Amino acid sequence: MRNLILLLVLAFAFACSQPAEKTSISFGGTLENLEAGAVEFVFYRDYTNNHREIITIEPDAEGNFKVDFEMPGAASGNLRHGRTSILLFLEPGDELEFTADATNWLETINFSGKGAEANNFCVLYQREVLPGVGNSFFSNAAANLLPEAFAAAIDSVASLKLNLLAGFPEKESLNPAFKAWFETEVQYDRYSRLLSYPAMHQRFNSLKTLPELPENYYAFLEVPDLFDSSRLNSETYVNFLQAYLGYCADDHKARFTDDNSPNEINYVLAGELIPGESGYYVQAISINREFNYGDLDKARALYDKFMETAESEDLKARVTNTWNGIQALMPGNPAPDFTMTDMDGNEVSLSDFRGKVVYLKFWASWCGPCMRQVPPAAELKRRLADQEDLVFLYVSIDTDLDAWRNTVKRNHISGIHFQTPGRERGTPALYQVKWIPTFFIIGKDGSIFDNRPPQPADANVDEMLLKALAQ
Question: Which of 1, 103, 173, 244 is most solvent-facing, going by the fewest CB within 10 Å?
Fold first, then answer.
């Protein structure tokens, strides 16, 4: 017994003497020729609610910097400066040093330290492969190729990417988490492209029906382990899950009515067709999207069902956080006040418009759905031109100031305009903006009148704004 106690004491002492597994990530290095504009690392902390986090890198006068931060696990992110965005892959414990000339990031950036091999490969990948196989390549292929030729083109792109990995000189030094993530990116991008082809080909060629597909076109959906929850750190895999549900929805449309929202349909089909954690994950996305964009009663019904049936406490906590946040922005609550600089350089606060109704829009010049609301908004303003107490206020999340200003000027978007780079902080974060466009109506008393109002193209937008003005 005495020997056993001694062994236990020694084992405990040994365990205590071992360094704890490092969960943080450190960036350090030197940036040359850095001019205006923030340097940031941006990553998704939670795909289910489109929650991104920004880590700001602040070099000193000599261009040297050091920053430490936490990530929930191994995942990708983007190093951003101006219009430059460089894909990186990090995992807890990485200690990266990198140098770069900010006038030519992609050609000059070089990594050293723990995690360097994966990120040097990412840079090589972006230099040698991505420029030739971006979205324009796939759009042209979808428009001009028949199904067999399109599938062959997609397969050749996947082979090109995997061959680059196979021939990478430091392949053996790449950690397993990175190799698994990269292979997921390649394979599930291929699957998603194949799923999107029929609708893209029909749209680009103005066809009345979808193109006829070979009998075995969808054979890739029968591969073993198509659904693998270890891949949930890949945005591409998560996007594939949603594309898969869109593909399946056509076969199940007779089960649903026009009153069912896309999120309700996805929730049901995810529970039936996607096993394990992946299915619950997509259900969490559906709930969060319904909370942010849809009908609150429907969202709450999905939420209650999820809390009863989901096996993941983590995912339950995520949708609960969304619900708690939504409640803070419910009608009747005070609208979060903010002060920003308008397009003319004047400081303006939301509270300056007390006594007026504010139709608040979060948007960006690069956002297609946002821009499609511009002509209907112009018509709306003409219809309500006699309403002196109605203010149209725009908050752009553009990072390109010239693009923002030029879009406002070119499209004659009248109103009061603000800009903040990204939706992850400042005013968009106050209003928990997860997707754009996002609209709010702020009442004359400074409270939220409607937290998911009709958009300018909707039939009842005049009625809702006039109702707010009447109070």
Answer: 1
Phi then psi for residue 83, to 5 deg, are -90, 0
Please state, in angstroms and rounded to a whole number, the distance separating the CA atoms of residues 444 and 351: 10
Helix 461-469 and helix 374-383, axial crossing angle in degrees, nearest 10: 50
> Which is more confident, 234 or 425?
234
Residue pLDDT, tens place only, 241-296:
999 999 999 889 889 998 999 999 999 999 999 999 999 999 999 999 999 888 88
* Omega prior to 437 cis, within 30 of 0: yes
Residue 352 structure tokens: 């300056």
Determine the Cα–Cα distance for residues 96 and 5; give it in Å rounded to an integer.
43
DSSP H/E element including 466: helix 461-469
- Residues 417 and 405: their CA atoms lie apart, in Å, by 9
**What DSSP designation does 342 have?**
B
CATH, domain range 24-128: 2.60.40
Considering the chain, what percentage of its residues have pLDDT values greater than 70? 95
SS3 223: coil
Closest CA to 222 of 194, 253, 181, 250: 194
Q: In angstroms, rounded to a whole number, what is the distance separating the alpha carbons of residues 166 and 160?
A: 10
The DSSP line for 178-192 is: HHHHHHHHHHHHHHH
Decide: residue 217, CB within 10 A, 0-12 exposed, 13-18 middle, 19+ buried: middle
Q: What is the CA radius of gyration of the chain?
A: 25
CA distance 328 to 10: 53
Which residues make Cβ contacts (< 8 Å) with residue 199, sequence separation at least 6? 210
Residue 10's pLDDT band, with cuts at 50, 70 and 90, is very low
List where CATH 2.60.40 sits in the chain.
24-128
Give the per-residue pLDDT at 421.
Answer: 85
pLDDT tens, residue by residue, 409-438: 999 999 999 999 888 889 999 998 988 999
Model confidence at 3: pLDDT above 70: no
Q: Look up residue 135 and give its amino acid.
A: N
> C-alpha 11: how far from its chain's center?
46
pLDDT in tens, 47-65: 898 888 889 998 998 999 9
Residue 21 pLDDT > 70: no
3-state secondary structure 272-334: HHCCHHHHHHHHHHHHHHHHHHCCHHHHHHHHHHHHHHCCCHHHHHHHHHHHHHHHHCCCCCE
The domain 339-469 is placed in CATH, from the list 3.10.28.10, 3.40.30.10, 3.30.450.40, 1.10.150.240, at: 3.40.30.10
Q: Which residues contact 29 (CB under 8 A, 6 or more apart)?
A: 64, 65, 96, 97, 98, 99, 100
Domain with CATH 3.40.30.10 in the chain: 339-469
Whether 351 shows a pLDDT value over 50: the answer reads yes
